[in-house]
């Protein structure tokens, strides 16, 4: 399977249609112009999001953080999830030490070792005080070399109607900063949890590659964004493979 | 008086102590030696000097003021690198503070900043053998003369006084105290983290590893403060938020901290940072030339202290006024030739009245007391010990 521009546009259009049907109805997301118009509108809306989540990190340990992102997303209720999706699961990443903040803020999820914590998703004003206290997670640092690690998601509840599965989590690392990596994977993983694609006891093999080229599908989910410096080009930044029995 | 601490070993700090006397550390903000002293600077220096000399009548006081510690900040190293790049090998020994200050204003006005690599040789020279750029050395030399003329204790402007802790050690010490968020492994900065007290994160080392003045202060005060019974921090109002952080950190080391915040001295109603210039005609150098001309030394010293401490107070409502300064000099003349019978109380007793619940003497209360009418004249030995 080739991740063509055609495929990326179709998938991008589907996501916008799911989240903002009124926007998808007004513009043709398969054309250059429609793509740009939608992007500008979404960017303008994200300047002033109604609902967002805040993720506080005191360092960067990708495998551990993936597990915690899963655990966080599992706790998001249906109503909050719907509102959050309407703002494209917007999440702000802040540098901070959750251990120092736990007494002041009632986090919705905190890692056992206190390395990461989440507030929300909730109306933006809910996290104003926290955002004033902390700084954005450093934006410019290049991603370090990542190991091809297996992340075992906790068996934190009934598996539902399916047995645990094993998926590949591909990440396109060329030109990627740590901050961008957090953004892409947070969208992909948390939405996959809300969609039931990731569940208790599932396993994820992290596969960092420069570009998602030659990666054979099928995919359960794609994280798509604009290609750097090429506003008409879409790029797959991350992908979750279809599951196989774990 | 105990003089300046030149080594940070607590055992050294304890030397020369008189048994039973409390130990007090005065740690004022330092002035970067790249511009002329202005009335705002002078106010802070005179307040500290009176606090030091008065408190020394009741406690063993250490006045810590180390230009060495703060040479490592980007604003100082960047200026020196700029001078070497643009001026080259020049003779700085004959320059005035104003001339060096003009160069500094030129440096601050430039948009581009030197990279971390360009500053590294400067940081290494300061760090390894106490090197000072001749422009900085010249300004400190001129300030030493001002201190002498005004009878201010010289806390070691020209001395090599490195902080006791290395940069890395102080980050480790902060981490151990739970006050550090170190993101260098993610290509980020180091923050001072007192968020548990509701204080915002404050960057102290940038993502290129360059420390700011707070990082330098931590290297100095973390090892020093715990060996004192009280640490007094004197600083400008603009730095209030930073000093709340410093207080939290030092309290966590078991230190009792007193913050003394001083407003600046507006010139014609405006408070300007010296880095932008605008001090022409209002430098301490120019002031001493003009007001000090033909003035008796004792009158100058006492009158300056009356004005900058008792008249201006801690606030910053009053603009600098030469006519009011001259009135203070006239008051000093009268005080020094006072025919009233002096206060019979011993000097320590007079000083202790102005100490309240802390170990240091409050310069405002002590100095304003000199001006009070219907009171006995201040004992001559008090004036000698504290004001002349």
Please describe what this structure looks like.
- The complex is a heterodimer of chains A (246) and B (388).
- Chain A has 246 residues and is α+β, with helices and mostly antiparallel strands.
- Chain A has one domain (5-245).
- Chain A has helices at 5-19, 21-26, 32-47, 62-74, 78-86, 98-101, 128-133, 178-194, and strands at residues 51-57, 91-95, 109-110, 116-123, 135-136, 150-152, 165-172, 203-209, 219-227, 230-241, 244-245.
- In chain A, α4 runs parallel beside α8 (178-194).
- Chain A starts with a helix and ends with a strand.
- Chain B has a 4-stranded parallel sheet with strand order 2-1-6-7, with helices on both faces.
- In chain B, α10 (240-252) links the parallel β6 (230-236) and β7 (257-262).
- Chain B has 16 helices and 7 strands.
- Chain B has a single domain (10-336), classed as Rossmann fold.
- In chain B, α4 crosses α6 (116-129) and α12 packs across α13 (322-336).
- With 388 residues, chain B is α/β, with parallel strands linked by helices.
- The chains are: A alpha+beta (246), B alpha/beta (388).
- At the A-B interface, α6 of A face loops of B.
Short description:
The complex is a heterodimer of chains A (246) and B (388). Chain A is an alpha+beta fold and 246 residues long.
User: How far apart are the termini of chain A?
Assistant: 23 Å
Counting structural domains of chain B, the number is: 1
- Count of helical regions of chain A: 8
Kindly estimate the percentage of residues of chain B that lie in beta strands according to DSSP: 5-15%
What's the structural blueprint in terms of helices and strands?
The complex is a heterodimer of chains A (246) and B (388).
Chain A: H1 5-19, H2 21-26, H3 32-47, E1 51-57, H4 62-74, H5 78-86, E2 91-95, H6 98-101, E3 109-110, E4 116-123, H7 128-133, E5 135-136, E6 150-152, E7 165-172, H8 178-194, E8 203-209, E9 219-227, E10 230-241, E11 244-245
Parallel strand pairs in A: 1-2, 7-8
Antiparallel strand pairs in A: 1-4, 2-5, 3-4, 6-8, 7-10, 7-11, 9-10
Helix pairs in contact in A: 4-8
Chain B: H1 10-14, E1 23-28, H2 39-55, E2 60-63, H3 67-70, H4 74-86, H5 97-109, H6 116-129, H7 134-149, H8 167-176, E3 180-182, E4 190-192, E5 202-205, H9 213-224, E6 230-236, H10 240-252, E7 257-262, H11 284-291, H12 297-311, H13 322-336, H14 347-352, H15 363-371, H16 380-387
Parallel strand pairs in B: 1-2, 1-6, 6-7
Antiparallel strand pairs in B: 3-4, 4-5
Helix pairs in contact in B: 2-12, 2-16, 4-5, 4-6, 8-9, 9-10, 12-13, 12-15
């Amino acid at each position: 399977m080739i991740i063509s521009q055609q495929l990326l546009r179709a998938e991008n259009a589907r996501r916008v249609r799911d989240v903002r049907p009124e926007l998808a109805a007004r513009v043709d997301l398969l054309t250059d112009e429609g793509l740009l118009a939608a992007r500008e509108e979404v960017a303008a809306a994200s300047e002033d999001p109604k609902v967002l989540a805040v993720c506080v990190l005191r360092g960067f340990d990708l495998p551990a953080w993936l597990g915690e992102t899963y655990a966080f997303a599992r706790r998001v209720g249906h109503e909050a999830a719907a509102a959050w999706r309407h703002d494209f699961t917007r999440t702000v990443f802040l540098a901070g030490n959750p251990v120092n903040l736990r007494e002041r803020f009632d986090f919705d999820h905190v890692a056992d070792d206190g390395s990461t914590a989440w507030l929300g998703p909730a109306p933006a004003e809910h996290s104003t005080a926290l955002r004033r206290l902390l700084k954005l997670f450093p934006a410019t640092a290049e991603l370090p070399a990542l190991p091809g690690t297996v992340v075992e998601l906790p068996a934190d509840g009934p598996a539902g109607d399916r047995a645990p599965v094993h998926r590949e989590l591909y990440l396109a690392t060329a030109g990627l900063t740590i901050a961008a990596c957090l953004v892409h994977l947070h969208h992909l993983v948390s939405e996959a949890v809300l969609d039931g694609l990731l569940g208790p006891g599932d396993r994820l093999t992290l596969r960092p590659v420069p570009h998602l080229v030659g990666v054979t599908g099928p995919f359960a989910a794609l994280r798509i964004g604009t290609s750097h410096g090429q506003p008409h080009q879409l790029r797959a930044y991350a992908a979750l493979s279809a599951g196989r029995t774990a | 008086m105990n003089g300046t601490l030149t080594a940070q070993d607590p055992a050294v700090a304890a030397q020369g102590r008189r048994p039973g006397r409390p130990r007090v550390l005065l740690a004022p903000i330092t002035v970067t030696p790249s511009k002329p002293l202005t009335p705002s600077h002078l106010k802070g220096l005179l307040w500290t000097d009176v606090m030091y000399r008065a408190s020394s009548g009741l406690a063993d006081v250490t006045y810590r003021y180390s230009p060495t510690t703060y040479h490592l900040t980007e604003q100082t190293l960047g200026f020196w690198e700029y001078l070497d790049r643009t001026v080259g090998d020049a003779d700085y020994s004959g320059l005035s503070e104003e001339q060096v200050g003009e160069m500094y204003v030129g440096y601050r006005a430039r948009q581009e900043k030197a990279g971390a690599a360009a500053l590294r040789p400067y940081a290494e020279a300061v760090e390894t053998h106490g090197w000072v750029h001749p422009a900085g050395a010249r300004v400190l030399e001129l300030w030493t003369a001002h201190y002498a003329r005004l009878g201010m204790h010289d806390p070691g402007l020209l001395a090599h006084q490195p902080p006791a802790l290395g940069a890395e050690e102080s980050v480790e010490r902060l981490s151990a105290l739970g006050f550090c968020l170190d993101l260098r492994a993610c290509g980020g900065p180091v923050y001072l983290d007192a968020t548990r007290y509701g204080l915002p994160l404050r960057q102290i080392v940038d993502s290129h590893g360059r420390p700011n003045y707070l990082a330098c202060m931590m290297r100095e005060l973390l090892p020093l403060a715990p060996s004192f019974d009280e640490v007094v921090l004197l600083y400008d109002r603009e730095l209030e938020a930073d000093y709340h952080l410093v207080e939290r950190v030092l309290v966590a080391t078991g230190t009792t901290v007193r913050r003394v915040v001083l407003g600046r001295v507006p010139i014609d109603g405006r408070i300007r940072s010296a880095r932008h210039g605008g001090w022409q005609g209002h430098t301490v150098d120019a002031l001493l030339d003009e007001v000090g001309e033909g003035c008796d030394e004792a009158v100058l010293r006492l009158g300056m202290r009356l004005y900058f401490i008792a008249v201006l107070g801690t606030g910053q409502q009053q603009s600098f006024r030469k006519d009011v300064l001259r009135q203070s000099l006239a008051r000093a003349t009268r005080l020094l030739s006072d025919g009233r019978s002096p206060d019979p109380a011993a000097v320590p007793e007079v000083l202790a009245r102005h100490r309240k619940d802390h170990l240091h003497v409050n310069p405002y209360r002590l100095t304003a007391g000199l001006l009070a009418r219907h009171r006995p004249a201040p004992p001559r030995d008090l004036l000698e010990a504290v004001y002349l």
